[in-house]
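ugh ok so i messed up the first submission bc i forgot one of the chains. this is the corrected input, ALL of the components this time, i swear. 349 residues overall. if the numbers dont match what u have on ur side tell me asap before i send this to the collaborators (the ones from the other lab, u know who)
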Amino acid sequence: MALFGLFGNKNKEKEREDIIEEKVIPQETVNEEVNSDSSAADDSEKSTTLDEGLKKTKRSFFEKLSRAIVGKSTVDDDVLDGIEEALITSDVGIDTTSRIIERLEARVAKDKYLNTSELNSILKEEIAELLNVGSSTTPQTYDFTKKPYVIMVVGVNGVGKTTTIGKIASQLKSQGKKVILGAADTFRAAAVDQLTIWSERAGVDIVKQSMGSDPASVAYDTVQSAVSKDADVVLIDTAGRLHNKVNLMNELTKIRNVMSKVVPDAPHEVLLVLDGSTGQNAYQQAKEFTKATDVTALAVTKLDGTAKGGVVVGISDQFQIPVKFIGVGEKINDLKIFNKKDFIDSLFK
Ligand SMILES: Nc1nc2c(ncn2[C@@H]2O[C@H](COP(=O)(O)OP(=O)(O)OP(=O)(O)O)[C@@H](O)[C@H]2O)c(=O)[nH]1
Ligand SMILES: [Mg+2]
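and heres the new structure output, hopefully the right one now
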């Protein structure tokens, strides 16, 4: 028996090694990797504003845009080509960029002498309309009539799952909610320690077991503890995984199933965390992960460290699943509830 157990663990380890090997870091993002100096996570520092968080994206996008219109007074084909390039290289994505350019073309066709000096406001209007900003309200974060409201957090390695959980826990705690974290990333001892530190920072409870224990068992214990303590929200941390690792995706199904034995409609939310600084990779992950498992909400992190913030525009345009949160820093208050209007306003400020 013990021998089989040993082999089982070996296989598991092998699978994890594969994941780490397969973690793709596009070359161009290496230089702009976010500062992961742990001193940056000092809670006493003030939180990053949306404007500050989007600074790199804004600077890079408007530099490209001004290059597109230099020496031009009206929006002609050359200018449109330049805008297209600016959008694509800001990681808005080809499909969404095409839709924005089509809108601009229609506008130029109507008004032949569209002035380049108005371009920013025109572009802002068209992007806002494309994303249906007029009808957007800040997403209701959670339905607290469900008690406990169970959130399972998933995604590939290193995207910011654990950090995002800590930030959400802190926000909910400050709203007076009773929150319990579940350390269902049992693969690394450090993962449990990291979540424990976040639980202390946020001032919320945590349920954990020893490293290597069954993640589904931790999730089960957490939900049960939440029920007995009359908690409002459960946040389950999971190990990073790739969508194409069948066993690991099955593990997520198992975690879901055991939680629903305690609270029948749990998990109420499956939050997929995406690293915004990986640009097009984040799209790919969203596409593939949402195919492989039920995902009900998205969080896009690390926007502060990248010029690829346009990725949020593309993701909100192309996925039916709402972007609920954006991460703009490593500190506990550096998570914003995503509001399309505020985002576009900040981008064009
Ligand atoms: N600058 C910045 N860094 C972030 C943000 N969110 C997370 N990070 C950093 O990203 C790194 C990875 O974050 P984790 O929360 O450990 O990511 P994870 O998905 O839990 O990682 P695994 O458990 O290893 O799969 C940490 O150094 C975080 O501080 C963000 O919004 N901005
Ligand atoms: Mg983690």
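quick check: The longest strand covers residues 269-275. that seems consistent at least. The chain has 14 helices and eight strands.
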